[in-house]
């Protein structure tokens, strides 16, 4: 079948390392860091929204396909990776955070945009929210439909993300997530549906704002999540290994020992309800904690607060995947059990 490209994108090109769209020097500077994902995906069919190849288009193609970008900012692009987001690893995260921290020090950079696959977008966004030390905006953006699909959502999402990164109103809001005309805090926002456009949301905390066309509109003045931690990763070349284990009936306790034997320095359990576990698993968790292996108990329900636990550490508002990021960063600075418990702020 002959490949059909959506009008909003042009044919795939070889991946490039950098690209600059020249614009008026009176406009703010925005850097687009491209990592791949659906927003850069393509398929042989313009109705295919699940079987496409992620990370097919380079950052230059993404920028050229949305000429309106030059009307809102001086755009430069850098290709960090071109992969599906399930393949994003700690090396990619550290490289991205270090480069963003460095570039945001420049007066020429008003903000940055990271194009990313949606499957793990919230993890990268949360990592950047805890490790980028700047009042300037960092905006995560992706797409639920590939570039070749009818009504591909990537071009408008990208224009909105750049408009947000170029806006003074976006300062002091931490890392944000933009999809489907919504602005969310990366600290709270999560992916809630596998395929629909309205997948990203924070069920309890809500959105920060929305878009009217390409113009961002905020509901609130800038604010900071309660006890939001920050971490310095500038001297780190690797991160401690932390694993997530999904809880269920009749769970095999030996799996926890296996994770530790394979090098896990901490474990996150996606527990039932309010982080509930079987009695046998709780006994093992207590043993691991006494032996210096922190175990965080989150919830598999998708939302809600997990209270502090006698056996293990309650995750508070952090879902399993964000609990893993936070525990990894806490271990990277050799935090003790009390300090880790304080990071998760799970007391009520």
Automatic annotation (TrEMBL):
Domain of life: Bacteria
Ranges in coiled-coil conformation: none
Signal peptide segment: 1-23
Family to which the UniProt record says this protein belongs: Belongs to the asparaginase 1 family.
Organism: Zobellella endophytica
SMART domains registered for this protein in UniProt: Asparaginase
Keyword vocabulary terms for this entry: Hydrolase, Signal
Name of the molecule in the record: L-asparaginase
Active-site residues, record numbering mapped to chain: 38, 118
Domain Asparaginase/glutaminase C-terminal: 241-344
Residue numbers binding substrate: 85, 118-119
Transmembrane segments: none
Keyword set includes Signal: yes
NCBIfam families: asnASE_II
GO biological process, one term: asparagine metabolic process
MF terms (GO), sorted A to Z: asparaginase activity
UniProt keyword annotation of Transport present: no
Ranges for domain L-asparaginase N-terminal: 30-221
């Amino acid at each position: 079948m002959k490949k059909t490209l959506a009008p909003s994108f042009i044919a795939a090109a070889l991946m490039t390392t950098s690209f600059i769209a020249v614009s008026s020097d009176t406009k703010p500077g925005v850097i687009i860091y491209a990592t791949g994902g659906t927003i850069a995906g393509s398929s042989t069919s313009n109705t295919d929204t699940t079987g496409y190849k992620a990370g097919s288009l380079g950052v230059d193609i993404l920028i050229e396909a949305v000429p309106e970008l030059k009307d809102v900012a001086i755009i430069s692009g850098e290709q960090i990776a071109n992969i599906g987001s399930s393949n994003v690893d700690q090396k990619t995260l550290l490289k991205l955070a270090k480069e963003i921290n460095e570039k945001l020090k420049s007066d020429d950079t008003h903000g940055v945009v990271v194009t990313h696959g949606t499957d793990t977008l919230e993890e990268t966004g949360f990592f950047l929210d805890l490790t980028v030390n700047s009042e300037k905006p960092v905006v995560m953006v992706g797409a639920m439909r590939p570039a070749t699909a009818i009504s591909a959502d990537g071009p408008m999402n990208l224009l909105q993300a750049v408009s947000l990164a170029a806006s003074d109103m976006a300062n002091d809001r931490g890392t944000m997530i933009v999809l489907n005309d919504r602005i969310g805090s990366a600290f709270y926002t999560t992916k809630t549906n596998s395929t629909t456009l309205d997948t990203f949301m924070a069920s309890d905390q809500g959105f920060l704002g929305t878009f009217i066309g390409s113009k961002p509109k905020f509901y609130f003045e800038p604010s900071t999540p309660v006890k939001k931690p920050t971490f310095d990763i500038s001297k780190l070349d690797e991160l401690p290994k932390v694993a997530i284990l999904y809880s269920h009936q009749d769970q095999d306790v030996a799996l926890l020992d296996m994770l530790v034997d394979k090098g896990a320095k901490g474990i996150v359990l996606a527990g039932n309800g309010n982080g509930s576990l079987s009695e046998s698993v709780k006994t093992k968790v207590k043993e691991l904690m006494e032996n210096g292996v922190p175990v965080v108990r989150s919830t598999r329900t998708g939302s809600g607060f997990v209270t502090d636990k006698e056996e293990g550490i309650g995750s508070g508002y952090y879902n399993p995947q964000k609990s893993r990021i936070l525990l990894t960063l806490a271990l990277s600075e050799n935090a003790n059990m009390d300090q880790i418990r304080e990071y998760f702020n799970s007391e009520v």
